Amino acid sequence: MATKIRLQRHGRKNYAFYPIVIADSRAPRDGKFIERIGSYNPNTNPATITLNFERALYWVNVGAQPTDTVRNILSREGVMLMKHLQGGVKKGAFDEAEAQRRFDAWKNQKQAALDKVKAGEADKKAKEAKERLDAEKAKNKAKAEALAKKKAEAIEAAKAAAEAENAEEAPAAEESAE
How many domains, the chain? Predict the structure, then answer.
């Protein structure tokens, strides 16, 4: 039986996520599968990948063929590198401890790069939030100044009207006094 490691499409329109499955190559894309070994969610930044590393490595070693996208995912997670290192151990190029040391060094480097990307995204979001807050403060300050100016004009108009009324009452009072 020809087995494939491939993605199944789930989710809704314009918001898909993909379980990573082992399936017979003749089975439909979203149909029957042998085993689910993880998931891939491209909607997050960076994309979220959960993978059962041991099972993925097992299936790659027994000959399951990954699709192009899954091959990229497996490479990113280190499954393909571990297969390569296990091949070096079988040939006697180095021992198992050396292979594990190389894999751990690669994984640490990869994790550091991923953490840097996540930190950059968090800084970017914080900066955008600060800019929005500053813009809102400036807008509120302008509105407050306009409102204060309008109130001052209303008070001035009321004072002017009161003075005009007093000015009209004064001659009328003088006429009635006479």
Answer: 1
Do 37 and 51 meet the contact criterion of CB atoms below 8 Å apart?
yes
| Span of 20-24, 144-148, 170-174 with lowest mean pLDDT | 170-174
What is the chain's mean pLDDT, rounded? 91
Residue 100 lies in a domain: no
User: In b/e form, how buried is each residue of 27-64, taking b as 16+ CB within 10 angstroms?
Assistant: eeeeeebebebbbbeeeeeeeebebeeeebbebbeeeb
Residue 51 to residue 40: CA distance in whole angstroms: 8
In a domain, 95, yes or no: no
Please indicate, yes or no, if residue 68 is contained in any of the structural domains. yes
| pTM metric for this prediction | 0.70
> Structural domain of residue 17, as residue ranges?
3-79
